Amino acid sequence: MEVIVVSDATEIGGIAADAISALLERKPDAVLGLATGSSPVAVYDELARRCDAGRVSFRQARGFILDEYVGLPAEHPQRYRNVIDAAFVNRVDFGPGAVDGPDGTAADLPAACAAYEDAIRAAGGVNLQILGIGTDGHIAFNEPGSSLASRTRIKTLTRQTRTDNARFFGDDLDAVPTHCLTQGLATILDARHVILLATGRHKAEAVHHLVEGAVSAMWPATILQHHPHVTVLLDDAAARRLQLVDYYRETYRAKPDWQGI
Ligand code: GLP
User: Fold this and answer.
1) Up-side HSE of residue 205: CA atoms within 13 Å toward CB?
2) 254: exposed, middle or buried (C-beta count within 10 Å: 0-12, 13-18, 19+)?
3) Do 226 and 39 contact (CB within 8 A), yes or no?
4) Which of 81, 83, 228, 236 has its CA 20 to 30 A from that of 100?
């Protein structure tokens, strides 16, 4: 696990955008794993700027969204499908139908989950997965107690996650769905490179467990310690509880530019 601590979200966005641009240069038909939430906003903004400037293209790329609420109508602005379209997909040059997400409106939800796993596999798997982290250590919507071997499935959201996300629903906790579909932890581990982004003091405890804690279903993100290629991009506030923070900083300072992440 490579841990990179920089000063702010803009710098994090630049580093992640560099990795995505380099991947698309090497492999224009790469498959990207896309996260919603506020953490990746700076990355998507930077990629939209680069795409406008003709420096990167998503024309041949594919995308898979991590998770989706169950029970929101198709046109609801907080449906993750609509969120990711507005935040990223519609701002760059993806082809029609290139980005897929779990179908939270399906009549048969387990079948929709199985179909989603099949679709990711049929696309050749995810080359680069962008991830955020919840304050309770969830990734995608794999809440504490999630099976470390889980695949895409239905989950019940914790009160903490629903409270965290109420800001997107006019601060009305009752308006936040109680259920979701989410890629499982094993689904996420199949991605070849995982880039996790976290900013702010409120993420410091989850980041502490992710990077330096014991692997446990109680802090689901810790399963990433078993992945061979994870990059964790943090601002100073999110890194404040890391014991080895000086070592991570020194290591990154000494890293040759050509190496990438
Ligand atoms: C949400 C999403 C996650 C996201 C996380 C953190 O509930 N399901 O995919 O990474 O919580 O969100 P944010 O980046 O807004 O802090």
Assistant:
1) 8
2) exposed
3) no
4) 228
Residue owning the nearest CA to atom 1 of ligand 1: 37
- CB-based contact 55:17 (threshold 8 Å): no
In this structure, how many other beta carbons lie within 10 angstroms of the beta carbon of residue 59? 13
Q: What is the pTM of this model?
A: 0.97
Total structural domains within the chain: 1
Active site residue 136: yes
CATH assignment of the domain containing 180: 3.40.50.1360
How many CB atoms are closer than 10 A to CB 141?
27
Residue 107 neighbours by CB under 8 Å, 6+ apart: none
CA 241 to CA 196: how far, in whole Å?
Answer: 17
Question: 226-240 as b/e, with b when 16 or more CB fall inside 10 Å?
Answer: ebeebbbbbbeebbb
The total number of residues shown for the chain amounts to 261
Query: For the segment 144-163, what is each residue's pLDDT rounded down to a tens digit?
Result: 999 999 999 999 999 999 99
Regions of the chain with pLDDT less than 50: none
Based on the residue annotation, tell me whether 29 is a catalytic residue of this protein: no
Report which residue type is found at 163: T
Dihedral sign for Cα 27, 31, 37, 39, please: negative
Active site residue 226: no
Specify if 250 maps to a domain: no
In contact, 196 and 131? CB cutoff 8 Å: yes
Say if 253 falls within a structural domain: no
- Using the mean position of ligand 1's atoms as its centre, give its distance from the Cα of residue 37 in Å: 4
